[in-house]
Amino acid sequence: MRKILTFAFFIFACVAIGALSSYANTPGEWYQSLQKPFFNPPDWIFAPVWAGLYVMIGVALSTTWFDENNTARLVVFAIQGFLNVIWSPAFFGLQSPLLGLVIIVPMLAFILLFIIMSWRPNRQAALLFVPYALWVAFATALNLSIVILN
């Protein structure tokens, strides 16, 4: 029962933090006025993609939490999580694509580091982070393109 509650807590926490960050930093007229690259997806796609990713992130955290010798991976997880949380306020709140880029590049690096560090001890957590890494890599290219175009 303890494991189930831990899983539920971490999944809920990840989804709630992501939803709160999204709600507090909704793109407005400023974002709409920016030039965007041809590969910019429609705005409606971001919420469902992030919701699914936050569920997977919560499951990865839960499985890592119960691993032995998990301290270094939990630190890497916390760093990428912190960078994830501050990206939206930097990009949308401060209206700074450049600051967003400065945050998202190390965020992607820490996501990849988590995958590498988790590959042997917890393949499930590593694999759960692969879609997240792919999406953040795409978001990094999008962020860079917005910096260049504007």
From TrEMBL:
InterPro entries, alphabetized: TspO/MBR-related_sf, TspO_MBR
Family recorded in the similarity comment: Belongs to the TspO/BZRP family.
Localization: Membrane
Pfam families cross-referenced by the UniProt entry: TspO_MBR
Species this chain originates from: Aliirhizobium smilacinae
Superkingdom of the organism of origin: Bacteria
Lineage: Bacteria, Pseudomonadati, Pseudomonadota, Alphaproteobacteria, Hyphomicrobiales
Gene Ontology cellular component list: membrane
One annotated GO biological process: tetrapyrrole metabolic process
Keyword annotations: Membrane, Signal, Transmembrane, Transmembrane helix
Ranges annotated as spanning the membrane: 45-66, 73-92, 98-119, 126-149
Signal sequence region: 1-24
UniProt name for this protein: Tryptophan-rich sensory protein
Membrane topology: Multi-pass membrane protein
